Amino acid sequence: MNHPVAVALSDFSSLFLQAWRDTGHGFPRSEDLVGLESPCVEHDSGDEVTWKPITRQPQGDLAGVEKGIEIELHKDIIDFYSTQFSGDMAAKFGEIELDLLQVFSEQDGVRLQENILGHLVTQRRLKLKPTVFIGVIDSADKVIAICNLTGEVILETLGKNERDVLAKDVASFLQQLVPVVREA
Predict the structure, then answer these.
(1) Using H for helix, E for strand and C for coil, what is the string for 153-166?
(2) Is 60 exceeded by the pLDDT of residue 1?
(3) Contacts of 178 (CB under 8 A, 6+ apart)
(4) Which Gene3D superfamilies match?
(5) Cβ distance 27 to 20 under 8 Å?
(6) The model scores a pTM over 0.85
(7) pLDDT category of residue 64 using cuts at 50, 70 and 90
(8) What angle do CA 71, 134, 153 make, to 5 degrees?
(9) What is the pLDDT of residues 15-49, one digit of tens each?
(10) What are residue 105's phi and psi, to 5 degrees?
(11) Which domains are seen in the chain, by residue range?
(12) 144 Cβ partners below 8 Å, 6+ apart?
């Protein structure tokens, strides 16, 4: 796990966990994850799940996406989604509040790959540069994404060629995130 993205993601995950501890909540909690199996689940009460990010061993891959659309994904995209299991993590990047998307389990990884593949197929059809989403904001038509060509992290308007560069790469984006604690 010495790739800069894996290190930055692990560092942010540690900050996220510490933010939850500092507010007296212990582990992050979610009602949305109840009943889902994952190696990062600490406890499932039936009403809410407590979880913590854990290193994924062995590291996953996104070969299904690459094969499905016949494209080589940027290494940062692969490392972002394949080095740990975690629930989504709330964060702020400057004034932008977002949920950093994560892979919760192997089954969730399959679903994620299907969603990424659909996103890339739509972009190809619309003749847009390929991106892969890594975060969602409180807007139905915008996502935080990684440009597959440059590795830049961008704020992208879905279905349009409107993109604002947020960071030159994923590691520097992750290093600028501030954890946000949202109670379930």
Answers:
(1) EEEEECCCCCEEEE
(2) no
(3) 91, 92, 93
(4) Syd protein
(5) yes
(6) yes
(7) confident
(8) 80
(9) 999 999 999 989 999 999 999 999 999 999 999 99
(10) -160, 175
(11) 4-179 (3.40.1580.20)
(12) 93, 96, 98, 100, 133, 134, 135, 136, 137, 153, 154, 155, 156, 166
Please state, in angstroms and as integers, the Cα–Cα distance from residue 124 to each residue in 20, 33, 69, 75, following that order. 40, 32, 9, 20
Residue appearing with tokens 């807007």: 139
- Supply 151's token pair: 């590795």
Whole-angstrom distance, CA of residue 35 vs CA of residue 114: 22
